[in-house]
Amino acid sequence: MNLEQRKANLIYEISSLINDDPLSAPVLIEELVEVMFDEQIDHMEDVIVNHFGVEIYGEETNDYSSKVDALVDSMGVTDKEVSTIHRRKDMDLL
Length: 94
Prior knowledge:
The chain is mostly helical. The protein has a domain at 22-76. Helices cover 57% and strands 0% of the residues. The protein has four helices and no strands. The chain has helices at 3-20, 25-34, 38-52, 64-74.
């Protein structure tokens, strides 16, 4: 499987997880951020600020949990409809 297909599959799986269980988003984001290099973190900070308009180092977001909350809020994730089922798509069909 080439890199572009792997990226597409990963995007699908992450989106499905968050869609099925919005409360999993902060945990998933934390895990992803943990494995990032400095340059990757710089890039994600730029994306958050420039594309979502979230000021990640502003007065109101001084701690890590506030940063995650701000990112999740910008994604429109709510806990009103929480599904306990995650349906995986057969990767061979993609």
